[in-house]
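Backbone-to-sequence.
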C-alpha cells in the first residue's frame, strides 16, 4: 500500500473507495476527497480485524460517466 493513493476496500461488507495512509503499528487512516462531509477515520491493526477491513487493491483509473 502506498500512502495517499486511492484504494478499494471492504469494510463490514461494504465496498468503499478511500485514500489510505499507513499508521504506526499497522493501522490505517481513511481519507475522503470531501473531508468537510466525511472526516478522516483511523483504525489500529486490531480495529481492522474487529471491523473486518480488507484492502482489496489500488484504484488506478478513477472515472466519472455522465
Amino acid at each position: 500500500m502506498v500512502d495517499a493513493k486511492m484504494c478499494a476496500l471492504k469494510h463490514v461488507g461494504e465496498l468503499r473507495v478511500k485514500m489510505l495512509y499507513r499508521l504506526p503499528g499497522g493501522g490505517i487512516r481513511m481519507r475522503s476527497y470531501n473531508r468537510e462531509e466525511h472526516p478522516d477515520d483511523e483504525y489500529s491493526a486490531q480495529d481492522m480485524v474487529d471491523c473486518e477491513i480488507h484492502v482489496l487493491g489500488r484504484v488506478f483509473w478513477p472515472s466519472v460517466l455522465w
